[in-house]
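Slack export, channel: ligand-projects

TW: morning all. Re-posting the request from yesterday since it got buried. We need the structure predicted with the small molecule present, not the apo form. The ligand is zinc ion; the SMILES is in the block with the sequence. No rush, but it would help planning for next week.
GE: picking it up
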Amino acid sequence: MNAAPADQIRLLDLQAIDSKLDQLAHRRRSLPEHAEIDKATADHTALKDLVVAAQAQQGDTARELTKAEQDVEQVRARAARNQQRLDSGAITSPKDLENLQHEIGSLAKRQGDLEEVVLEIMERLETAQTRVTELSARLEHSTVVLTEAEGRRDAAFAEIDAEAEKVKRDRETVAAVIPADLLKTYTKLREQQGGVGAARLYQRRCEGCRTEFSITELNAIKAEPADKVVRCENCSRILVRTADSGV
Ligand SMILES: [Zn+2]
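GE: finished. pasting the full token output, ligand included:
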């Protein structure tokens, strides 16, 4: 393949631009915010689950408390009814009176037991409420952490993308004047060779693969006409000779 030396040198300009774009894409992918966001998202999701579970626990305990309070109320009402019957003087049979007094005594004991249950549930409810409050605060904090990290990422994206847009416009200008066949070969080599399709020959080295050429090899390269597109024997990239190539 042949190409004017000036076009070959433009290829180096294009390579520099493409490398710059690759760097920007790499910077965009490897922002520290990505890991921060992943972690904050995981924390947020885990906390959301914990809050839901704690709220369910709180709800269950609140229902349990209502039920226990109703149990106390029932026993209290029954004891009050018995007490009324006793106070009314309507019951005269000593056996009935004894039974009634016995039942009132049993109910008082039962009420005491049930009131202890109520207190125990109230303690658990308080613990459950505290847990909901704490976890909700942590959830809120994790939302802030996540939102902040996303904000920093988006700001970095905006900066990188603006720069990339500028570089892309430069690329269009440079690429527009490079012959199509040379551009095609460069593009193919760039894909195959880790993003570098054209390299400068500098101080006997291919700047693509850093191979140092022997004098014989260098003489062979020198002997090629200036408009011949030379390829590195080692990495097969387009080897561009420039004024400071030393050939
Ligand atoms: Zn090479």
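GE: first-pass observations. The chain has a mean pLDDT of 96. The longest helix spans residues 94-176.
TW: perfect, thank you
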